[in-house]
């Protein structure tokens, strides 16, 4: 009896369900196994990586991490990346939330035109207008400045964020903000205390969606930051690429350290992220 009950969930899935479940397992393995390989390689010396790339290390050592953090100036690049990413995220979340609220909750003549204007920003990535951006930042005195790079990232992330948040603000019942106004709440209080908490899962989606490309970007910091003390983590990892050889042990250690903030960000926001993805998918 117990065996038949245990088999029931698989019977309910059916052939198509089992096939999809298998695809999900393969996808999970495709994500987890490279991370495990990176972590294992980070605690191996470079010769051992070439000798047995998939085997566990013969001796467990954190020398690669110490070398990356000290001689590779990883602490400096790490602080720079955190400053740039957090600064850009504050601007993206702040301005896109206010713009999404205005476009989603108010009907006025230029509503659709402004919304399309934001969407047009999705068609022009920063890399496409790299030369005009460089000229503009140079005229503004923002070359070799973290603030200039933060502005570029914020401008690139706001269109997608407005697109995501506007749709969710529009889906919220109008009785919520109307009741708050009847109770005497100002427009800012309606936005900050009533509407914004309701789109917290969508803010988590925007935060993760925009933070990953900012943290991993290599080209824009390479172009706009010439001072070595201002460079970011992806640029810092290039010191382990030699002209004739690559020191893979410290490189994998650096990649592991570089991936940790994004993994922690997802773990912290995972509950809100899943709620945002499944919003409207179920009733109740």
TrEMBL record:
Q: Which InterPro entries match?
A: MetI-like (IPR000515), MetI-like_sf (IPR035906)
Which Gene3D superfamilies does the UniProt entry name for this protein?
MetI-like
* A GO biological process held by the record: transmembrane transport
**One GO cellular component, as annotated:** plasma membrane
**First-listed, main subcellular location of the protein, grouped into a coarse class:** membrane
All copies of domain ABC transmembrane type-1, residue ranges: 78-269
Organism superkingdom: Bacteria
Q: Where in the cell is it found?
A: Cell membrane
- Please list every transmembrane segment annotated in the UniProt record, as residue ranges: 20-43, 82-103, 115-135, 147-169, 248-269
Q: Which family does it belong to?
A: Belongs to the binding-protein-dependent transport system permease family.
What is the name of the protein in this document? Sugar ABC transporter permease
Q: Which organism is it from?
A: Meiothermus hypogaeus NBRC 106114
């Amino acid at each position: 009896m117990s065996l038949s009950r245990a088999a029931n969930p698989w019977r309910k899935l059916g052939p198509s369900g089992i096939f999809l479940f298998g695809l999900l397992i393969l996808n999970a393995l495709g994500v987890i196994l490279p991370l495990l390989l990176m972590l294992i390689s980070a605690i191996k010396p470079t010769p051992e990586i070439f000798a047995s790339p998939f085997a566990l290390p013969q001796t467990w050592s954190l020398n690669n991490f110490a070398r990356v953090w000290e001689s590779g100036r990883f602490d400096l690049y790490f602080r720079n990346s955190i400053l740039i990413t957090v600064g850009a995220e504050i601007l993206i979340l702040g301005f896109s939330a206010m713009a999404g609220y205005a476009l989603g909750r108010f009907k006025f003549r230029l509503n659709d035109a402004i919304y399309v204007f934001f969407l047009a920003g999705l068609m022009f990535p920063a890399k496409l207008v790299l030369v005009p951006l460089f000229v503009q930042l140079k005229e503004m005195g923002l070359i070799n400045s973290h603030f200039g790079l933060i502005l570029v990232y914020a401008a690139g992330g706001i269109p997608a964020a407005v697109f995501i948040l506007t749709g969710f603000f529009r889906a919220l019942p109008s009785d919520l903000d109307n009741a708050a106004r009847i109770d005497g709440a100002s427009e800012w209080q309606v936005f900050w205390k009533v509407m914004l908490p309701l789109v917290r899962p969508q803010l988590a989606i925007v935060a993760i969606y925009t933070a990953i490309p900012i943290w991993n970007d290599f080209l824009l910091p390479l172009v706009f930051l010439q001072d070595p003390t201002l460079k970011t983590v992806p640029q810092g990892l290039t010191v382990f690429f030699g002209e004739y050889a690559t020191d893979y042990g410290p490189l994998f250690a650096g990649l592991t350290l570089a991936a940790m903030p994004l993994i922690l960000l997802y773990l912290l926001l995972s509950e809100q992220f899943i709620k945002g993805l499944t919003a409207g998918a179920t009733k109740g």
